[in-house]
Amino acid sequence: MMFRRRLFFFTIIAVFCATAATAQKSPRARDLGLPFPGTPGRTNAITDVNGVEVGHSTIVRGDGPLTVGRGPVRTGVTAILPRGKNSSEAVFAGWFTLNGNGEMTGTTWVEESGYLGGPVMITNTHSVGVVRDAVIEWNLTRYPAEAYTGDLSLPVVAETWDGFLNDINGFHVRKENAFEALDGASSGPVAEGNVGGGTGMIAHGFKGGIGTSSRVVAIDGSSYTVGILVQANYGSRDRLTILGVPVGKHITDLRPTRGGPPEGSGSIIVVAATDAPLVPTQLKRIAKRVALGIGRMGGSGENSSGDIFLAFSTTHSSKGPSPSIVQVPMLANDAMNPLFYAAVEATEEAVVNAMVAARTMTGINGNTVYALPHARLQEIMGMYNRPLPSNR
């Protein structure tokens, strides 16, 4: 009987976590009337790129003074799967780092091969290793007959530091959390803010975390989607700019308590997805444009920041032995400008979505990071005559 009760309890928890990972319950930037340019996809998320799935595992427990190994815990894992959890097909990819005080494993092989052969995982700085190992184990359980490949054994895992709110030295992320994020991944709306790898993150002195956005563009009569997902843990308050408005100059209070981390010392991870037919060199160009979206927000790639970006295309895939000559579709370089604009715009909106969705959080030793105040944000935008459409 006790075993059945425990099984029932964990089943309920698993269902709750899978639902929470995909349901969009928090307000978003456009819900506040912020007039971002461009045309978003159906859910305004990276999952608007057909086949892409996202899952989260969020770990929040304990309050009070820090006891290393016991908490409080404010962390998690986020998984982005280019072709979903039921596919092992590799996709073309490229990556770029604006400032390298951070980690994204597996990128040497991405650079060498031009392929991304598995999920992209995002977690906290001290949990990269366990998540990396978990991805390998997860792949082996699904594809046990596979021989050694770089795609299998060199997974992509990125990080940002959440040690102001989380017992980061307690190593609370386990392989089961990585499995939960992977197994719970789905298409459709993506939860934002204090979820997954973004649970304990800070952006521009406000609570940050996971954010996403997308753009649909037309090129020579064809429609393409660019989707962005960020884990935002970067930036200074004074430089915070939203749609050209110096928001951070107006909200000088609500700073992280108890001597928060130095401004500009955090990091940001960005994953860009598209269904446009791009080859790896072109995807690196998309990844570079992500930095311009962050720059619009006031991010400057500060010395201690880890600003690492990866882009992939779902158009071409590779599975199993390839023929000696492979023909792939490729968009002309001269036609790429709409995709560049889309990447810049969606990155900016994804960061704002992360901050709008995030909620005030208290972690270790009573350390508190405050949410971006929605009403004050709207008031400041109005001061600069930014239109606030009533139909959004």
Describe the fold and architecture:
By secondary structure, the protein is α+β, with helices and mostly antiparallel strands. It has a single domain, classed as L-amino peptidase D-ALA esterase/amidase. The chain contains nine helices and 14 strands. The protein has helices at residues 2-22, 107-113, 128-142, 150-153, 175-183, 247-250, 280-297, 337-357, 374-383, and strands spanning 53-61, 73-81, 90-100, 115-116, 120-124, 156-160, 202-203, 206-207, 209-219, 222-233, 267-274, 306-318, 361-362, 368-369. The strands form four sheets. Strands 4-3-12-11-10-9 form a six-stranded mixed β-sheet. Strands 1-2-5-6 form a four-stranded mixed β-sheet. Strands 7-8 form a two-stranded antiparallel sheet. A hairpin with a 2-residue loop joins β7 and β8. α3 (128-142) crosses α5. The chain is globular, with a radius of gyration of 20 Å. The termini are far apart. The model is unreliable at 1-23 (pLDDT under 50).
SSE arrangement:
Blueprint: H1 2-22, E1 53-61, E2 73-81, E3 90-100, H2 107-113, E4 115-116, E5 120-124, H3 128-142, H4 150-153, E6 156-160, H5 175-183, E7 202-203, E8 206-207, E9 209-219, E10 222-233, H6 247-250, E11 267-274, H7 280-297, E12 306-318, H8 337-357, E13 361-362, E14 368-369, H9 374-383
Parallel strand pairs: 5-6, 11-12
Antiparallel strand pairs: 1-2, 2-5, 3-4, 3-12, 7-8, 9-10, 10-11, 13-14
